[in-house]
Amino acid sequence: MDLPLHSLHGALGLTRPAVFATVGGGGKTTVLFALAAEWEASGGEGLTVLTTTTRMTIPREGRTMPLAIGRDDAFRAGALDDIRSRGLSSAVVGSGRGDRERVLAVNPSWPRQAVDAGLASLVGVEADGSRGRPFKAPAAHEPIIPEGVDVVAAVIGAGVLGRPLDERSVHRPEIVAQIAGAEIGDEVTPELAARVLTSPAGGRNGVPESAEFVVLVSGAGRNLEGSRALASAVDGRVVLWDVGSGVFHSFR
Question: How many other C-beta atoms can be found within 10 angstroms of the C-beta atom of residue 103?
Fold first, then answer.
């Protein structure tokens, strides 16, 4: 079942079965839970599994979603079979529970294994952290991209556009500045953001050539003009999206 192009699935180029990963700044978790809700509303068959290769905080709207928490692969498989047998469409999987409603990482090989084994039609993976900032560049050890990933979305919160490049709005601003050829305190322009999001040292860091790459501007309704300017500066697929309004535009 393929959802229409104006859906979030369609805008991201997601055709199930698939492994999907989010990296970058603020909005990564929201995107994953929105995909699960969209699939449920469409009546699509197959389970949506949300997980992380780092740590993921479960948002309030996702706290009623069933959990399969454990380090043992056989346990997780049994738990997902049980969830499907109850007619449910989504679940959160992790190796353990941390503080502040956080789910702990699974092995990067597990999402692909789960899809190939038919445990889920989509495994959505939060593969990066940003300490709540809307924009970031990765350190050398980031992100942790799942093996066999099909689509990777580099996420940026539209609200950062026009703000100063500093630690209040940007995670690892010194790395962002280095990639962009900018200085701390410079304005985060659409052109600066585009350079970082599409750089092999930035949003594309660790993304395999076999995977589709998408830039997703979250909260685009907060700054639609700036979001469109960012999309114009990116050579490739860009999705302008807002959790309340849905997809504003998808550029290819």
Answer: 23
DSSP summary character for residue 39: H
CA angle 42, 44, 47 (to 5 degrees): 125
Between CA 75 and CA 152 the distance in angstroms is 28
Contacts of 133 by beta carbon, 8 Å cutoff, 6+ apart: 25, 26, 160, 169, 170, 171
Structure confidence by residue, pLDDT tens digits, 7-21 = 999 999 999 999 999
Q: Is the peptide bond before 190 cis (omega within 30 degrees of 0)?
A: no
Give the CA dihedral 134, 171, 122, 42, nearest 10 degrees: -10
Q: In which band, very low, low, confident or very high, does the pLDDT at 248 lie, cut at 50, 70 and 90? A: confident
Tell me the C-alpha distance between 51 and 54, whole Å: 9
Token reading at 57? 């905080």
- Measured in degrees and rounded to the nearest 5, phi and psi for residue 14 equal -90, 115
Structure tokens at 92: 């959160």
Beta strands 212-218 and 170-171, pairing class: unpaired
Query: In a 3-state reduction of DSSP, which class is residue 47?
Result: coil
Helices (H), 124-250: 173-180, 190-197, 224-233
DSSP state of 178: H
Beta-bridge mates of residue 216: 155, 239
Q: Which two tokens stand for residue 40?
A: 């449920």
Using DSSP, state whether 198 is helix, strand or coil: coil
pLDDT per position as a tens digit, 10-68:
999 999 999 999 999 989 999 999 999 999 999 999 999 999 999 999 988 778 899 99
